[in-house]
Structures are given as C-alpha cells and as structure tokens.
C-alpha cells in the first residue's frame, strides 16, 4: 500500500513526536493544559471532517460530544462498567446519535441544516436538564474514586497521574489523527471534498451523496463522542454545560481559527484558542467578547484560518 | 450494426408550471449509434436529456434503459447503470485540480462492489489520466480546474463523462465556446468513444452534427418534430420551417 | 371553582405573549424574507430595547408614562442605528453569505451580551408600567397595560402591513426580495434597502423589548427565549411569509400560554424545539402553505 501525500504524513509524525517530547519539558500545569488541548483537538478534528472537508456546517456538535460524555459517564456511574468499556460505549453513543440525527438533518441544506442541528442540540441539552435526577443537570456528577484507575491487559493505569492522562490523550489523538489522515487523503476524502465543492455534479457522477454525507456525519459524531467520553472519564466529571450551545460554537471557532479542511488545523486552532482563553480567564466576561470578535474578524478577513491561509499561499499539500 | 434498443421513452412529459418544456416524447435510441438532437433555443432539448439522466423527474411518461424501466431511479443509480451526462453549463469542481476532477468520476466507475474490491489510488489516477489524454488535457493535470480557459473546462467536463466509461454518453452542447481546432479534436474524440458506447449529442453547430450523427432527432416546443438520417432531415420541410420560423 | 377562569386567564396571557412574539418574529421574518439571511443577534436587539427602557426610566424623572413614551421611540431608533451599522460594517462585507452571516451574527450577539453584562450588570431590573389600571373581570382583575401591549402590537403590525403594500419603501423591499439582480439593474439601491431592512427588523425586536419590560424585567440574557420562540414562529409560519408568521405567532403564543399551565416549562420547550426541527426537515415551506425555503 502506498501512502498518499507523504509530506503531510511526515509532518504529522513530526508533530506527534514533538507532542510526546513536550511532557519532558513542560511544567505539570502545562502538561495538564496540553492534555485538555489534545482532547478538545480530537473533538475539533471530528468537527473539521464534517465542516472543513465535507462542507456541512453544524451548529450542534456539542450534542455528540455530550452523547459520548454521558454514555460513557453514566455507564460507569450507574452501571459500574469498567472504564475501557465505558469509553467504547461513549464512542458508540456519539456515532449512533449522529447517525439518527444525520438521517433527519441531512434532508436539509446550508442554513436549514445549521438551524436544524442547532435545534436538535438544544433539545439534547434541555433533556440533560429535564432528567437532572439522572444526569445531575448543571451540577453534574463526579465519577466515584474507584473509577480513577483501571487495568488494561494486566496493566494498572492510574488516572490521577497527569503524565498517565497526557499519554492516554496523546495516544488517542495519534490514533484519530492517523485515522483521519487515511480517510481524508484518500479516495473517500476526495469524495467528501467533491460533495463540498459541487454536490449536484457528484450526484451526476453516480454517487449517492446523501449516503456520503451520512457517513461523514456519523464518523464526525463518533469522533466527537470519543472526545467527550475521554474528557468525562479522564477528569471524572460529567455535566450538562458540555452540551450547551457554547460548546458547539467553541468547536466551530477552533476549526475556523486553525483552518477548516486542513488535517492539522484543529490542533493549531484549539491550541491557540485555549491558550488565549486561559490568559483571559481572569476577566471571565471578556472571554465571550473575544470569541464574538474573533468569529466576526475571521469571517471578514481570515476565512481560511491559519493553516488554510498557509496552504493557499505557500504549502499546497497542507490539506 | 445490431438493432438492439438501448433507450426508449414513452409519452415523456415535463411541465414547469404552465410551460410544457417536454410534451409527450416517444423516443428510441439504438445501441452503438451517434444520435444528434437539434432544435431551436428553448425547444426542450436540455430538459429532455435531463429526464433521461434523472436529473429532473418527469411529470409523466416512462424511460427504459437497457431493457429496464428506470423512471423511478434517482440520477446516481442511472449513472451506475451506464448513463453519463455532461452539463450544458460547465459544472466542475473549481478548486480541485484537473486530475482530481476526473479522478472523482473514475472512482465512481471503479468503486468497490460485491465482486470487486475498491481500486487503489494509483488505479483511479491512471484511469483519470487516460480519460484526460483522450480529450487532450493530459498536459494540464495539476492545474486548478476553476482557472482553466472556458474551452478547456468544456473538455474537462467531457473527460469526466468518459472516465465513467458509460454505455450512453449524453453531451449537452459540448462544443459551445470551443475554437475550430478544438472542435476538430473533439470530433475525433467522439468518434473514438462511439466505438464502445452510444452517444446522444445536443448540438447547434451543424458541422459537428453532420460529421458525427448517424441519425438526427429534431425537437420543437417540447415535441418530436422529425427524425431521420442527416440527409432526410436536411430536406425536411417542417424542419426548415421550424428553423426559419415559418409555419410548416 | 371551575376551569373557565383559568382558561380565560391563560388565553389572555397567551394573547399578550403572542403579540410580543408577533413583533419579534416579524422582524426576523422580514430580514430573512428580503435579505435571505438569518440574524442570530435578533434576541439581543430585543434585550437592548428592554435595557433601553430601563435606562430611560432611571434617567428621566417624573411620571413613568413619560419615560416609557420616550423609550418607545428612542430605544428602537438607537437599536436600529446599531443594526444598520452592523450591516454596513460586517454583513455587507461578507456579501450576505448565508453561512458566514450566521457565524457573524453569533459573534455580534456575544459582543452585545457581554458589553451589556459589563455595563448594565448581571441583575434583572424592573420598570414601572406607564399606567396602573386593573380591568375587573368577575373572577380576577387584569392589568390594562397588558391590553395596551396587545393594542400596540396589533397597530404596529397593521402599519407594517400597509407600509409593505403601499409605500415606496415597501415596493423597494418587495422588488429586492423578488429578485436582487433585477432590482440592481433597475437602479434600486439594494445596499441601502438591505441596511434599512436589517435596521427595521431590529427595531421591531426592540419595540417588543420596550413593551415587555414593565410586564417582566430587563436582564442581559433575556434575548435567548424570544430568539428561540421567533425561530419557531418563523419556521412554522413559513420563512419570509408575513401572514404565516402572524398566524404562527398567535397559535404558538396561545398554546404556549396554555401548555405552561399544565406542563413544566422545560418540557414545553423541548417539545416545541423538536417540533420546529421536524418541521424544517419534513415541511420546509412551513405549516401554512408556501414561502421561501432556506
Ligand atoms: N427549471 C426550470 N424551471 C422553469 N422553466 C424551465 C426550467 N428549465 C427549463 N425551463 C424552460 O423550459 C423550456 C425548455 O428549456 P431547455 O433548457 O430544455 O431548452 P433547450 O432546448 O435546451 O434550449 P437551448 O438550446 O437554449 O439550450 C425553456 O422555455 C426554459 O425556459
Ligand atoms: Mg439546452
């Protein structure tokens, strides 16, 4: 088997190697920050596959992140399911919900699609509040101490250790990154871009574009669910705030900043934005103004994002 | 040539509000022929072939392709059965490279099925290159499609049709905007294609029609006005009247 | 006691809500109808109207009726100006690309919300109604101010209707809505019409905001619900259709009033949001006949 776009593949490996080294250089605090960035970047990569490559702008991806978070968290909290299995349940939760929502939402396009995904996500959020006796509502649930460690193939894993958490996050980030490399740089990725660029033409070349979009939507939802499950289990907390509209906007913003339709854009965008938000966290209310201003500014002057602009100007293989 | 019927329509109609764009057409196409459809502007030619390709659903009537009633099939299924359609208004992937444009089409033909595993990226690109070579665009593989000259975009459109290796290739005014030398090249391309597939060609350029068509169908105001060999059509009074705008 | 008084009360409350909703939703619908864009910051314009009313009430001494009258005129004007500015500075530059417009107006809404929080503060604040007078029913008294809300809303909608049908501005709007390119070719200043429409839509939300404050309270997050409800109304009524929007506002305002008597507000919100999503999926032209699709 030959690897397409070898330069990009090499770059991905370099980035992964650098991230691995980072844990030996950075302070504990920064390692923790980087752990969060990696998990949110997984979420953004899932979002980017749909929004950047396939051209479907969802305003409701928080629901898939939350589906993973709750499916995994509740399975562990109430069912006592072991963490690795709860994690798989979380991925399935995101994927299955995305498949069902996709069946409906993909009957619409562009603006309708945005509103429909927003509405479904709002329903999901309200459901987490309505059933707060189960979900803990906006107070959330803290997973039991027994769930702070697990053993996998005889290997004891302690989730209270920042280094362990970092390496788990990095491993899963690497798996998703390489997986998405295979998807986006090969024939399937070309089809996604074809749907984005000209859906009618793609239909007239013999493709069932509804199915292609449903596939993209489901993969995207499953990856978002994976990120949600990982977040909930690693930090031992699940709460409805992850299902809020704001989360959907954040992942959109991460993707926009990094560069929609570029493989590494979500990592860059998530990194830049989380760092920025951390800096601003002293002024809590200013944070949303920055988000607002950025949404407008990017749209006006910077629609391709950081890596997208670099790709268009200098590095065409960065896609 | 074997008298096998490839495509047949019965009472095919398409109305847009009160306008009868296609108004009850019975049409038969034999396997292997090159058929030209001519007719004045607004006669319903594009609408008619859109009904064949499934891009637009008919108001009434049936379409039969290769012995199968395809009236209810969506466009993409008809493409898979072997009906390829190139648009009258250029319809490509503007930000993709020339090669990638045709690769999408090649990928459609080489898609995995129960009998065959999916083609590798190399096979897909080879197929795309072959189709591009056939229209003479093989020296522009890496150019961005959206910035090609108009004539080249038309050829790209045709190459996408070729890459599907269809049983029936429908070309809607493919030579519009081409230079004389490009038209000469195009005629050669279609002749080669016609050895392996049936061609249905909408064309205003009578030189192209006369060089290629085995038979000609004339549409006027959504109805089938005449059909016959090029010589017959040239001498048909009704056709002359339609083109000169006089009552028949 | 039998159920009749409850139903009457719920109906009255429903009508009040329907009137406010009608104004807000018509603003959203107008903007969509003419410009084909969805304004997510619409709820914030409503909130600004309410905050403006509170500001007038605190700044202007004397009888509350005076400050209320001032607010009813000044607040919408300022909001309209702001909206026109946003249109010029942002929407016009992204060429009203539908998706970019949604993302930008989300940005605008965040900015307005947070600026209000930083200046106006996090507390809900009440404003005195311009007049107190209770209308006596056999079972309960009912504030005449609420009837005033209904009256103003109906009068404004009737005016809008006449303007759209008979004024030059209405003609320009309809021409632009019908076909932007042709309108441009006929020398209609489409850019200015768009700014005006965007401002006008925002002003309708602001008027609704002013009207509602004496009845509820001003708060920096109060734009959420009206935005959601307006979406629901506009989508159910058929995007860009004025009669459809009015019918849907009355229907939804009334049923919301009745439903919230029997069900928890969260459940009612879940049901109505889901309904709207499904309407968009299965009946994108709205429940009442034909209108623009998005
Ligand atoms: N989607 C549509 N909606 C309404 N009317 C249409 C539509 N498509 C085509 N028409 C009308 O149907 C009639 C036939 O159009 P069609 O494009 O099929 O003609 P044509 O023979 O291909 O013309 P030309 O030679 O100019 O390409 C025309 O009057 C056209 O305006
Ligand atoms: Mg035509």
From TrEMBL, chain A:
Q: What's in the GO CC field?
A: plasma membrane
Report how it sits in the membrane.
Multi-pass membrane protein
Membrane as a keyword?
A: yes
What would be an example GO MF term here? branched-chain amino acid transmembrane transporter activity
Its subcellular locations are: Cell membrane
Is Transport set as a keyword in this record? Answer: no
Keyword entries, A-Z = Cell membrane, Membrane, Transmembrane, Transmembrane helix
Where it mainly occurs, coarsely classed, is membrane
Q: Which Pfam families match?
A: BPD_transp_2 (PF02653)
Q: Which domain of life is it from?
A: Bacteria
Q: Which residues cross the membrane?
A: 63-79, 85-106, 113-131, 168-193, 214-239, 251-277, 284-302
PANTHER family for this protein: ABC TRANSPORTER ATP-BINDING PROTEIN (PTHR30482:SF17), HIGH-AFFINITY BRANCHED-CHAIN AMINO ACID TRANSPORT SYSTEM PERMEASE (PTHR30482)
Q: What is this protein called?
A: Branched-chain amino acid ABC transporter permease
Native species: Paenirhodobacter populi
Automatic annotation (TrEMBL), chain B:
Taking every annotated instance into account, which residue ranges of this chain make up the domain ABC transporter? 7-246
Q: List the Pfam families hit by this protein, alphabetically.
A: ABC_tran, BCA_ABC_TP_C
List the record's Gene Ontology CC terms alphabetically.
plasma membrane
| Keyword Transport appears in the UniProt entry | yes
What InterPro entries does the entry give?
AAA+_ATPase, ABC_AA/LPS_Transport, ABC_transporter-like_ATP-bd, BCA_ABC_TP_C, P-loop_NTPase
Keywords associated with the record: ATP-binding, Nucleotide-binding, Transport
GO MF, any single term:
ATP hydrolysis activity
Q: What is this protein called?
A: ABC transporter ATP-binding protein
Automatic annotation (TrEMBL), chain C:
Q: How does it sit in the membrane?
A: Multi-pass membrane protein
Q: Where in the cell is it found?
A: Cell membrane
**Membrane-spanning ranges:** 15-38, 45-62, 68-86, 145-164, 193-215, 227-252, 258-282
InterPro entries, per the entry: ABC_transp_permease, BCAA_transport_permease
Record keyword Transport present? yes
Q: Which GO terms describe its molecular function?
A: transmembrane transporter activity
A single GO cellular-component term on record:
plasma membrane
Per the record, the GO terms for biological process are:
amino acid transport
Chief localization class?
membrane
Fetch the Pfam families from UniProt.
BPD_transp_2 (PF02653)
Q: Which UniProt keywords apply?
A: Amino-acid transport, Cell membrane, Membrane, Transmembrane, Transmembrane helix, Transport
Q: Which family does it belong to?
A: Belongs to the binding-protein-dependent transport system permease family. LivHM subfamily.
Name listed for the protein in its UniProt record: Branched-chain amino acid ABC transporter permease
What organism is the protein native to? Paenirhodobacter populi
Query: Taxonomic lineage of this organism?
Result: Bacteria, Pseudomonadati, Pseudomonadota, Alphaproteobacteria, Rhodobacterales
């Amino acid at each position: 088997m030959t690897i397409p776009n070898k330069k990009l593949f090499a770059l991905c490996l370099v980035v992964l190697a650098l991230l691995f080294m980072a844990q030996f250089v950075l302070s504990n605090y920064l390692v923790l920050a980087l752990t969060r960035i990696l998990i949110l970047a997984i979420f953004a990569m899932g979002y980017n596959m749909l929004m950047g490559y396939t051209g479907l702008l969802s305003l409701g991806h928080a629901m898939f992140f939350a589906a993973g978070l709750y499916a995994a968290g509740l399975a562990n909290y109430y069912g006592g399911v072991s963490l690795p299995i709860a994690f798989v349940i979380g991925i399935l939760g995101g994927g299955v919900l995305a498949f069902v929502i996709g069946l409906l939402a993909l009957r619409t396009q562009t603006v309708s699609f945005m509103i429909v995904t927003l509405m479904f996500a709002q329903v999901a959020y309200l459901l987490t509040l309505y059933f707060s006796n189960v979900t803990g509502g906006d107070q959330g649930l803290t997973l039991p101490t027994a769930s702070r460690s697990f053993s996998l193939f005889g290997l004891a894993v302690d989730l209270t250790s920042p280094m362990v958490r970092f390496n788990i996050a990095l491993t899963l980030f690497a798996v998703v990154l390489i997986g998405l490399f295979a998807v986006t740089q090969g024939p399937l990725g070309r089809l996604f871009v074809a749907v984005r660029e000209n859906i009618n033409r793609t239909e007239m070349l013999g493709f069932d574009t509804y199915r292609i979009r449903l596939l993209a939507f489901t993969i995207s939802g499953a990856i978002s669910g994976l990120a949600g499950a990982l977040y909930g289990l690693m930090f031992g907390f699940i709460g409805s705030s992850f299902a809020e509209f704001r989360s959907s906007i954040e992942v959109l913003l991460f993707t926009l900043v990094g560069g929609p339709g570029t493989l590494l854009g979500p990592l860059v965008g998530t990194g830049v934005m989380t760092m920025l938000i951390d800096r601003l966290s002293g002024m809590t209310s200013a944070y949303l103004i920055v988000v607002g201003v950025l949404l407008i500014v990017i749209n006006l002057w910077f629609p391709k994002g950081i890596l997208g602009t670099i790709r268009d100007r200098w590095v065409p293989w960065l896609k | 040539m074997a008298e096998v019927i490839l495509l047949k329509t019965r009472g095919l109609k398409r109305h847009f509000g009160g306008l009868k764009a296609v108004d009850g057409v019975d049409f038969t196409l034999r396997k292997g022929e090159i058929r030209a459809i001519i007719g004045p502007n607004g006669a319903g030619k594009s609408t008619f072939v859109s009904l064949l390709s499934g891009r637009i659903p008919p108001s009434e009537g049936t379409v039969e392709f290769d012995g199968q009633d395809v009236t209810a099939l969506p466009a993409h299924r008809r493409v898979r059965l072997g009906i390829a359609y190139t648009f009258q208004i250029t319809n490509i992937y503007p930000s993709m490279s020339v090669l990638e444009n045709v690769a999408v089409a090649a990928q459609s033909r080489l898609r995995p099925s129960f009998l065959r595993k999916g083609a590798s990226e190399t096979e897909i690109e080879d197929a795309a290159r072959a189709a591009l070579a056939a229209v003479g665009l093989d020296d522009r593989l890496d150019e961005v499609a959206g910035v090609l000259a108009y004539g080249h975009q038309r050829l790209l459109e045709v190459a996408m049709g070729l890459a599907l290796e269809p049983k029936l290739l429908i070309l809607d005014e493919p030579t519009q905007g081409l230079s004389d030398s490009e038209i000469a090249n195009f005629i050669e391309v279609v002749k080669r294609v016609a050895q392996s597939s049936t061609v249905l060609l909408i064309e205003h350029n009578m030189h192209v029609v006369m060089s290629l068509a085995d038979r000609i169908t004339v549409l006027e105001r959504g109805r089938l006005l005449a059909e016959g060999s090029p010589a017959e059509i040239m001498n048909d009074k009704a056709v002359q009247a339609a083109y000169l705008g006089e009552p028949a | 006691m039998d159920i009749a008084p409850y139903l009457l009360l719920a109906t009255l409350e429903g009508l009040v809500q329907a009137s406010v909703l009608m104004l807000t939703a018509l603003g959203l619908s107008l903007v969509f109808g003419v410009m084909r864009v969805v304004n997510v910051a619409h709820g914030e314009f409503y909130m600004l109207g309410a905050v403006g009313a509170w500001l007038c009430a605190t700044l202007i001494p004397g009888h509350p009726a005076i400050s209320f009258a001032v607010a009813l005129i000044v607040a919408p004007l300022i909001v309209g100006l702001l909206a026109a500015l946003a249109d010029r500075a942002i929407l016009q530059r992204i060429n009203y690309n539908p998706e970019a417009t949604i993302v930008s107006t989300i940005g605008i809404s965040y900015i307005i919300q947070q600026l209000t929080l930083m200046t106006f503060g996090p507390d809900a604040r009440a404003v005195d109604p311009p007049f107190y007078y209770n209308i006596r029913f056999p079972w309960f008294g009912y504030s005449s101010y609420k009837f005033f809300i209904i009256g103003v809303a109906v009068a404004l909608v009737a005016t809008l209707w006449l303007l759209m049908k008979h004024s030059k501005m209405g003609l320009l709007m309809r021409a632009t809505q019908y076909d932007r390119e042709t309108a441009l070719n006929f020398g209609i200043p489409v850019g200015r019409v768009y700014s005006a429409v965007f401002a006008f839509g925002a002003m309708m939300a602001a008027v609704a905001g002013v009207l509602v404050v004496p009845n509820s309270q001003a708060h920096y997050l109060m734009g959420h619900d009206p935005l959601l409800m307006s979406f629901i109304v506009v989508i159910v009524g058929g995007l860009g259709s004025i009669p459809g929007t009015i019918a849907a506002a009355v229907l939804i305002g009334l049923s919301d009033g009745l439903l919230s008597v029997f069900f928890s507000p969260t459940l009612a919100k879940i049901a109505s949001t889901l309904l709207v999503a499904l309407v968009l999926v299965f009946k994108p032209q709205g429940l009442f006949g034909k209108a623009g699709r998005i």
